[in-house]
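Exercise 7.
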Amino acid sequence: MLAVGVILLLPGVLCAVLLVASGETGGGPFGYVMLLIVFAVVLIVGAQSRK
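Solution. The predicted structure, written as tokens, is:
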């Protein structure tokens, strides 16, 4: 189940990184907040996989 969750997260993470890296966020700091949220979710999934 964890592997499926990580696989489902990957497209969202890649889209968020590409959106912020391209500089076309359109929402100002919204793109960076979105990237921080995605990073936090990845850290939480990583912490749960260690247990």
